[in-house]
Amino acid sequence: MKRFILNHKALAFILSLGLFTACSEDVNDDPIVTPEPDATRWITIAGAKMGDAPGDGNGGTLIYSVSSEDAKDPTVSIDPFENGFIAPSNRTARLQASEDGKTIFNISYAGDTGGNYTKYTVEGGQNFIPTGTEVSIAPYVGTAPRWIKLFDGDKTGSAVYVSTEHQVDDNGTPDDATDDVYTHTEAKIGVVTLDLENSLIKEFEEHIVPLSAAEEAAGYYFSRIDMPTLNAAGDKLYIGTRLSKVDPSTVERESDYEILGSKTIILDYPSLLNPTVITSTVGHGNTNGYRSINAFEYNGSVYQANQSDPEGSHILKIGADNEYDNSYDFNLDDALGIEGAYVLAWRPAANGKAVLAYRHDGSADGLAGAQGFFALVDLNAKTAVKIDAIPYDPDFYLFQYQGFAVDGNEIYLTQAPVGQNGNIYVINTDTGAVTKGAELVNATGSHFIGAW
C-alpha cells in the first residue's frame, strides 16, 4: 500500500500532541530526546510541466522535498504536479541546491521575471521558505541566463552569455557590397558572479575572446558558453564552449563541417580577467553542456564531459596546470560498447565514481526525443557500465535533465517516462547497488528533471 507524505509541519504538530499527552500522564522524569531538525537530509524532486507539447517542459517547474529515508521508501508516493511548490520561472526553472540539500537556489528563465535570483530554505513537502533578498542578473546576462552554482561552499554563483557579430572588410568601399570580404566572427562574452549568501553582484566582466587566426579565417567562432567551474586552487574559472561555423564566402551558417578539438575558456578568479583558450587533442565537440553542470573538480583536476563528438562523448581532464591532460583518454563509446554516446547530464560523488545520463545512436525515438539511459562511471578506472536495474522506456527523455542529489557516496536520480509514473532510484557508487525508492506521480505530457 502506498504511503503519501504528510506535510512535515502537520506531522510535527501531531507528534507534539502525542508527546504532550505522554508527558502529562507519565511520571517518568527522564528528558525526552527528539532528533535535531537539521539532521534531516532533504531530497528535492523537480518536475517540468508540459507547455504546448509533451516533454517541452515549458509549463513551469514544480518542486517537492522529502527526507532521504522517504526518498528510499517504495511505499511513499510523491506528486509534485499536484502538491508541489511552483518555482518562479516563465519556462523551466534553472535550479541549484546547497551541498547539504537544505537550500534551493533558483534563477527564473525568460519572461518578465527572467534573471531574478531567489533562495529558499527547504522544510519538507511543498514548504520552501523564501530567505534573503531577490536580485536580478538580467542587466548583466539577460533574462534567459545560463548560470551555475560554483563549488565553493555554496557562496557563489556564476552566469555567462556570448554575443557574436560577423566582421566584414569592405576594402574602403562601403557603398559597394560586392567588395565586402568576411574576416572573422567576433565573440564577446560576459561573465557575472553572484554572492549567493547576501544576494549581491560580486564581479562582472566582458571580453572579446578570439580563436586562432586560421580558425577564425575558416569561419569558426564561439556561439555558446556555459557551465563555469572553479579549479581546485580556486584561482581560475573554466567556461565550457560550443563552436559554430559560417562559410567565409557567403557568411551563411554551415551545418556540416569539421569538428575541432574541444575548447574551454579560462579566466582569472575572482577578477574574471585575462581570458585564454585551451584545446583538447583527445576530445572534439562542445563542452558547454545544456541544463546540468558539465564539469566537476575531483582530486585536484577538473573532469569535463563533451557533446557532439564524432567519436562519441568523452570525459576530458584538465590538470592542475590549467591545461588539458591529453594522456587521459576516456571515450564513452568504447567504455559502454555503443556508438554515438552523448552525455546529457552527470554527477560524481567524492570517491570519483559518477552517475551519467546519456543517449546514443541506438536510442529509440520517443514521444519527446531520443530515449535516455543511466551509467555508473569510474573516473579513475575510466570505465562506464549501464545501470540495468533502472527500467527504461522509449519515452524516457533525459535531454532536459538538470540535477542529481549526492549524499555521501550515494546518488539519487529520478526515473519516469514522459507522462508516466516512475520512481526515485538511489545508486551506491561504492558497491553499485541500486535501491528503488519512492513512487513519482506524473502528469500528462510532463516529466521529471532531477533530484537535488
What does this structure look like?
The chain is mainly beta and 452 residues long. It has a domain at 43-336 and 417-422 and 443-451. The protein contains six helices and 32 strands. The longest helix has 18 residues, at 8-25. Residues 6-35 have low confidence and may be disordered.
- Describe the strand arrangement of the main beta sheet, using strand numbers: 1-4-31-30-29-28
Structure annotation, total helices? 6
Structure summary, number of beta strands: 32
Question: Kindly state the mean pLDDT as a whole number?
Answer: 91
Largest sheet: 6 strands, mixed
- The percentage helix is under 10%
For the terminal residues, how far apart are their CA atoms?
A: 26 Å
Shape: globular
Percentage beta strand: 35-45%
Find the structural class using helix and strand composition: mainly beta
Rg to the nearest angstrom?
24 Å
* Low-pLDDT runs: 6-35
